[in-house]
Specification:
alpha+beta; Rossmann fold; Elongation Factor Tu (Ef-tu), domain 3; 3 domains; 6-stranded mixed sheet; 22 strands
Length: about 425
């Protein structure tokens, strides 16, 4: 039995006109996750545009520009629930100039769904999106081979595309890849299994998403607790209470555990774990709790409580794979603020090691300029140590963002190598 509270986040990616918005519309429509007034409004718009029936893409293309041009520009988040699971969909644009939007939408996803037009097979955008999914260590990929109705539901076409995709996936760190042939327009294999592809023995997309095992996606081994704030309630019932509040980034903490506070290195033992109005014996990711210790240690926001026998690396020099998100290019040796968990420090870009050519996936060591949508490997130096893990082992403590201190804009997001 699956826990109904288990939330699955998935991102949709694909080339322009592969039918992402139609697929999400079909998913919401067939799983009865659309309000009647929404349906009415979209039916009217569809009729105005002269469509036969309901244009399912209009459910997700929420911006007026998107509806008028028939394209997706921004990351659109959609929420829906079935009796088995809760879902958040990040619908990301297909155009090359929106690479950063895909990185944003995919950064917290459990599953990436990559759409392929059955008539075109694997194209440059497919490679780009598969690369970003593997870069962001998304644990599961569902390859939706769409528009099967336009290739006469051919099993041969389906198998050919699987071979093409497996060829590129073999060069990337992708472990769980599943393939589903479908027609989002007609509703084949999205929520319901129709009779057009009897040769396909697998489950439709929604059933695959509902039953996919995702609880092992969270790192349960490395106990990491970044401190957000120190709680000192000055009331009669909590006269001497000193708790450290935050969200468990990964692993499990139990009362009685021997812990170390980083970067100071002081050791202590967990005295209690509190959540709202109850005492807990243990806390695990992604719970928000307050931890009290047996000893009085000077701890502040940005410090990290870890188990004494399992520590992250404390370092001022980090190597990151970074996606540049800002319109303004990176300034060489300029100072930025770096946010890592609850820890905010000053940092400087020391060196651009190489840039990734998103089209060929080759490395360019000559070009050191970082412009919007560029993905590159960099060396960064911070003013004080960060407590880091490699991103591939721990997505929570392996990710950073860079902030322009003059404008407060987030200019880049990175994964620690």
């Amino acid at each position: 039995m699956l826990d109904n509270n288990q939330l699955l986040r998935f991102t949709t990616a694909g080339s322009v006109d592969d039918g992402k918005s139609t697929l999400i519309g079909r998913l919401l429509y067939d799983s009865k996750s659309i309000f009647e007034d929404q349906l009415e409004a979209i039916t009217k718009t569809s009729n105005k545009k002269g469509h036969e029936g309901v244009d399912l893409a209009l459910f997700t293309d929420g911006l007026r520009d998107e509806r008028e041009q028939g394209i997706t520009i921004d990351v659109a988040y959609r929420y829906f629930t079935t009796p088995k699971r809760k879902f958040i969909i990040a619908d990301t644009p297909g155009h090359i100039q929106y690479t950063r939007n895909m990185v944003t939408g995919a950064s917290t996803a459990n599953v990436a769904t990559i759409l392929i037009d059955a008539r075109k097979g694997v194209v440059e955008q497919t490679k780009r999106h598969a690369f970003i999914a593997s870069l962001l260590q998304i644990p599961h990929i569902i390859v939706c081979i769409n528009k099967m109705d336009l290739v006469d539901y051919s099993e041969e076409v389906y198998n050919k595309i699987i071979r093409q995709f497996e060829d590129i996936a073999s060069k990337m760190l992708v472990t769980d890849v599943r393939f589903i042939p479908m027609s989002a327009l007609n509703g084949d294999n999205v929520v319901n299994k129709l009779d057009n592809m009897p040769w396909y023995q697998g489950a439709p997309m929604l059933h695959t998403l509902e039953t996919m095992h995702i609880s092992s996606d969270i790192n349960k081994v490395d106990a990491r607790f970044p401190v957000q704030t120190v709680l000192r309630p000055q009331n009669d019932s909590h006269r001497d209470y000193r708790g450290y509040a935050g969200r468990v980034a990964s692993g499990v903490f139990r009362v009685g555990d021997a812990i170390t506070v980083m970067p100071s290195g002081f050791n202590s033992i967990i005295k209690s774990i509190d959540a709202l109005d109850k005492n807990l014996t243990e806390a695990y990711a992604p719970m928000s709790v307050s931890i009290t210790l047996e000893d009085d240690i000077d701890i502040s926001r940005g410090d990290m409580i870890v188990r004494s026998n399992n520590k992250p690396t404390a370092t001022q020099d980090i190597e990151v794979m970074l996606c540049w998100l800002n319109n303004k290019p990176a300034k060489p040796r300029a100072k930025y603020a770096i946010q890592h968990t609850s820890n905010l420090q000053q940092a400087m870009i020391k060196d651009v090691i190489y840039k990734i050519d998103i089209n060929t996936l080759g490395r360019n060591t000559e070009d050191k300029d970082l412009n919007m949508n560029d993905i590159a490997k960099l060396k960064i130096r911070t003013t004080k140590p960060l407590m880091v893990d490699a991103y591939r082992e721990n997505r929570s403590t392996g990710s950073i963002v860079l902030i322009d201190t003059t404008t407060n804009e987030t200019v880049a997001a990175g994964m620690i190598v």
